[in-house]
Write the structure tokens for this entry.
Amino acid sequence: LKGKIITVVGSGLIGRSWTMVFLSGGYTVKIYDNEPGQASRAITEIRKQLEELQQAKMLRGNLTAAEQLSLLSSHHDLQQALEGAFFVQECVFEDLKAKHTVFHEVENLVTESVILSSSTSCLMPSNVFSCVQNRTRCIISHPVNPPYYVRLVELVPHPETLPAVMDVAYSLMTDVGQAPVRLRKEIDGFALNRVQYAIIAESWRLVQDGVISVKDIDLVMSEGLGMRYAFIGPIETMHLNAPEGMEGYLQRYSEGMKRVINTFGSVPDFSGEPAARIVKEICELIPAEQEHLTVRRERRDQLLMELAKLKK
Ligand code: NAD
């Protein structure tokens, strides 16, 4: 696949991140954005980031920042941007109509073999690709922010997607150093957000019901579960947590798990008095003014970078 061309449509936060990931793998990347000037501004931003990463010895791949930048171009003409591409990564607004417009336009400009991939976080493949004629080459490649340090990509097929298309996307993601997982069928929220929302729901209920503070529930993850989840998942955790492995774990703990799971409450409203209380509590810890949020985001990205190094 090396040396091949990938077109990134939409050059916001995620479009720029995908571009950097593909460049690190030695792919030629052509960025298109329908907002005049946006794609060339994206190149300026990417140049700055690649140079900083090189300075910090955190640049991914075997090429220097300058070599990676030489593979990059921006286009305000979609046809030009798509010329020669084998893979199109769509990164426009999370809006079904915007996705429909883009894929309709793109399909009219590329041959049948070109893979059409969407970055959508929450839209189902059967909705995203409903305006595409040949849906066998359509796939969702859902990244996690920031993809440069958090490598997971969820590959989600449309019901008509060919297995060979999943395989190409899987090889591409592996080749650029991401960690792809395959969903065997589409489901609302894919896998990551379903698990994330289960965690959010229970954390919210525990705070709302006065069991624990906002500060302490976040520590349950960051100082407890999160420590091992950076390396092993929940199923391996079960397997390792009993001397006899998973079967022993089930014998010892399944009754207790079922008892506790049966006490989980209903879907939180995320509104009204409980929400106001939780907003107040988190804002006392981290005020919602940009300056404070920026500091915490920078800290998050710095620590993620260190963790990514450690995982390597
Ligand atoms: P963004 O608002 O930062 O960027 C969107 C870009 O798309 C803008 O530059 C805009 O000019 C461009 N655009 C809009 N319509 C277009 C069109 N018709 N043709 C070409 N360009 C167009 O958004 P983002 O955060 O980068 O999100 C992009 C996609 O990635 C969304 O589907 C989102 O759900 C998904 N995603 C986001 C995150 C995240 O954390 N931000 C994580 C995973 C997936």
The pocket of nicotinamide-adenine-dinucleotide is lined by residues 9-15, 32-35, 38, 91-94, 98, 101-102, 119-121, 142-143, 145 (CB under 6 Å). The chain has two domains: 5-182, 192-311. Residues 216 and 222 are 10 Å apart (CA to CA). Strands lie at 5-9, 28-32, 72-75, 85-90, 115-118, 138-143, 152-157, 179-182.
